[in-house]
Amino acid sequence: MPAIRNQIRELRARREITQQELADRVGVTRQTVIAIEQDKYSPSLETAFKVAIALGVPLEQCFQYDAHGKR
Amino acid sequence: MAPSLSYREKTLYASLAAELIVYGPYFFLHQQNTVNKVAGMIITIIVLQIVLQLVITVFTRNRVIDERDRLIELRGYRAGYLVIASLMVIGLGMLWFHAAIGHLHLDNGMMGLHFLSVFFGMLVIADITKTATQIVAYRKAL
Description:
Shape of chain B: elongated
Radius of gyration of chain B: 18 Å
Number of strands of chain B: 0
Strand order of the largest sheet of chain A: 1-2
Largest interface: A-B, 18 and 19 residues
Helix content of chain A: 40-55%
CATH architecture of chain A: Orthogonal Bundle
Strand content of chain B: under 5%
Oligomer: heterodimer
Order of helices and strands of chain B: HHHH
Structural class of chain A: mainly alpha
Largest sheet of chain B: none
Mean pLDDT of chain B: 87
Distance between the termini of chain B: 20 Å
Mean pLDDT of chain A: 92
Radius of gyration of chain A: 11 Å
Number of domains of chain B: 1
CATH superfamily of chain A: lambda repressor-like DNA-binding domains
Low-confidence stretches of chain A: none
């Protein structure tokens, strides 16, 4: 399991927001949103906050840290 | 949804293609090297890169570059630097070795061309390593 996991895919689906829409709101590429959703990239704190704000949830609802996870 | 290529990825693939097309013959066709040939390759790669970047820019609507792109770019430069630094150490070691056994004749008229060829080769290898590392990084977990 990765050290930083996220619920972006589920939160996005519930709000019917596409990857491109979320990417535009956060100011990143769609490929970066995909990489974050697939746990292939851990975003900076600033981007993590922007994602949480774009999805309308607190940061900890969007991202979770596992001290025993990889990376 | 499958990840299509971002603007940066497209430019990297174009750069790698240009580098392989222009520099490929330099490594695999063993022709007599000249200063004009090296200069011609440098001018060709610059012109080709500009043309390819222009085409990609025109045909790509979303040209956002974000923190992941910048991180991958830095990783590429790190890999390129490690390659060029390693090749420099090996090259200087070989130079020292050849000087020690008396095979180095600095008065030889071809020596300058040999040095140019070796250093140009090092730069090309480091540049291709940088671009290839960035392409791989886009497909791997960071």
